[in-house]
């Protein structure tokens, strides 16, 4: 059996089902003692009991990541039960589909509180405890390919973009204290996918959560030393790094930009540099006339 997490204590949030359950079970199989967290305490206990029945070490937590005190309590439970916290997988998340004019403020708030504030609250509690221990650690946030922009998923996409930005920023903040921070963009057949016809089309049943677990275990383990600030995508068969936003050349410079010079910058320079946008890489209308049919050879008039 793979024991690459021997002697480590890790917290996995949202681990009562789906991807989190797979991360928790695989971490335990790899030798970690695991706090199995889920807002649904019965499901958390089910996963923890399953791990214990198979000879692993696990304790359940029904805390909500969306509450800073409960997030802190979850980390304290790990330290109290297992003497330390070496890893955190911030996996708990919710999603829904809506067009901008269909959005409901309560639903938006719940999503942001879980997917953004939850990752911050749990991560900061873990970082504090890891700092106090003085032997570093590994934080693995769960982002999404949706962070690149997807139709009907704007609020969810924004929350996962926030997780990506948090990951790069925390990696900068924590490198000196030996805490690595990376993010994984998974794709797996879970109830999150069952809810959407489009997701189901892109994600057949053989894309099981267990296929993503080795990536998360790698990032938790010592074999990934020197790897931080990365966004890594795995959809089952494909594994790759996600490129990060950057300041794109040409960078024009003048003392003052007025309406006329901004218009000219776009007409004369940036029109040709506009970026395809969203996960589907949609070409902006202004550029589209130059790219449509580009694969067919040009014919002379
Ligand atoms: N399934 C995919 O293809 C996919 C793709 C990209 C990203 N993700 C992300 O992966 C993570 C897991 O997704 P999943 O597909 O397994 O979803 P899931 O709905 O099956 O599981 C999510 C779990 O999080 C728990 N949870 C929700 N709010 C919580 C809170 N406040 N505190 C603690 N637990 C809470 C839920 O009870 C649930 O058990 C999510 O962050 C999701 O956004 C999933």
TrEMBL record:
**Statement: the UniProt record of this protein carries the keyword Nuclease:** no
Against SUPFAM superfamilies, the record matches this protein to: NAD(P)-binding Rossmann-fold domains
> Which GO-annotated molecular functions does the record name?
oxidoreductase activity, acting on the CH-OH group of donors, NAD or NADP as acceptor
| PROSITE patterns tied to this protein | ADH_SHORT
Q: Which UniProt keywords apply?
A: Oxidoreductase
Asked whether the keyword Endoplasmic reticulum is assigned, the reply is no
Domain of life where this protein originates:
Bacteria
Q: Which InterPro entries would you find in this protein's record?
A: NAD(P)-bd_dom_sf, Sc_DH/Rdtase_CS, SDR_fam
Q: Name one Pfam family in it.
A: adh_short
Write out the similarity annotation. Belongs to the short-chain dehydrogenases/reductases (SDR) family.
Q: Which PANTHER family match?
A: SHORT-CHAIN DEHYDROGENASES/REDUCTASES FAMILY MEMBER
Protein name in UniProt:
Short-chain dehydrogenase
The organism named in the record is Prauserella muralis
């Amino acid at each position: 059996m793979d024991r690459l997490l021997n002697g480590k204590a890790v917290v996995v949030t949202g681990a009562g089902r789906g991807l989190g359950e797979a991360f928790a079970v695989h971490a335990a199989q790899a030798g970690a003692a695991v706090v199995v967290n889920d807002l649904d305490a019965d499901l958390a206990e089910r996963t923890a009991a399953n791990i214990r029945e198979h000879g692993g070490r696990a304790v359940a937590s029904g805390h909500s990541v969306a509450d800073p005190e409960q997030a802190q309590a979850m980390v304290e439970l790990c330290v109290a039960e297992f003497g330390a916290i070496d890893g955190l997988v911030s996996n708990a998340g919710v999603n829904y589909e809506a067009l901008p004019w269909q959005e409901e403020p309560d639903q938006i708030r719940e999503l942001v509180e879980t997917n953004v504030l939850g990752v911050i609250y749990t991560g900061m509690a873990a970082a504090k405890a890891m700092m106090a221990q003085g032997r570093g650690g590994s934080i693995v946030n769960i982002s999404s390919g949706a962070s690149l922009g997807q139709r009907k998923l704007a609020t969810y996409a924004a929350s996962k973009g926030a997780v990506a930005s948090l990951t790069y920023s925390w990696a900068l903040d924590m490198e000196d204290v030996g805490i690595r921070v990376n993010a994984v963009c998974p794709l797996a057949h879970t109830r999150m996918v069952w809810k959407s016809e489009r997701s189901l089309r892109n994600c057949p049943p053989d894309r099981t959560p267990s296929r993503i677990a080795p990536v998360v275990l790698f990032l938790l383990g010592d074999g990934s030393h020197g790897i931080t600030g990365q966004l890594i995508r795995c959809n089952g068969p494909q594994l790759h790094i996600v490129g990060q936003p950057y300041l794109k050349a040409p960078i024009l410079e003048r003392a003052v930009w007025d309406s006329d010079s901004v218009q000219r910058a776009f007409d004369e320079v940036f029109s040709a540099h506009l970026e395809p946008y969203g996960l589907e890489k949609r070409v902006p209308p202004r550029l589209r006339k130059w790219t449509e049919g580009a694969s067919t050879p040009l014919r002379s008039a």
